[in-house]
Amino acid sequence: MSRVLFNTLSSLLFLLFAFPATAESVRGGDLVVEAPWARASIGTSRPSAAYITIRNEGSSADVLTGIETEISSMPEVHEIKTNDNVSTMSPAGPVEIPAKDAVKLAPGGLHIMLIGLQRALVEGERFPMTLIFEKAGRVNVSVPIYSLGASGPEE
Ligand SMILES: [Cu+2]
Question: Measured in angstroms, how far is the CA atom of residue 143 from the centroid of ligand 1?
Fold first, then answer.
């Protein structure tokens, strides 16, 4: 290997390790699914929640129709609605991702409810999750688990 090439490769490796990507993202068709995370759970008796941002770079809307993950026997997209200071949570049904727009699943709004946990969510671990879209099809993400009190992806 030439010395120049070696130096170039070394620099590239250095950049890779010195600046790891903070926001994880996965592309599926026109969609970019980014910054997935979930909250740690206490055991498995109560559901936990996962959050993610879905960006649509295409010129037509797509629809999130379902979630699959081995960690939950019934993963469901929920929405929180607040009326007269009372917040209620209910299944959101199919979620439209408008063209050239983004939908953010975040605490206080849309979220993926992980009902029927198959094992406890432990801070620092990960689990696989599949988002199913009408057009983009199946998009697989690896979801990092943050602390019980986390409010968003770490910067
Ligand atoms: Cu919920």
Answer: 17
Mean pLDDT of the chain: 89
Single out the residue of 34, 20, 54, 36 nearest to residue 127, CA to CA. 36
CA of 111 to the centre of ligand 1 (A): 6
CA of 66 to the centre of ligand 1 (A): 14
Write the pLDDT tens digit of every residue in 60-114.
Answer: 999 999 999 999 999 999 999 888 999 899 999 999 999 999 999 999 999 999 9
- How close is the Cα of 60 to the center of ligand 1, in Å? 28
Inter-CA distances, 129 with 28, 86, 143, Å: 14, 31, 7
CATH topology of domain 23-146: Immunoglobulin-like (2.60.40)
Q: What torsion do the CA atoms of 143, 149, 95, 117 make, to the nearest 10 degrees?
A: 60
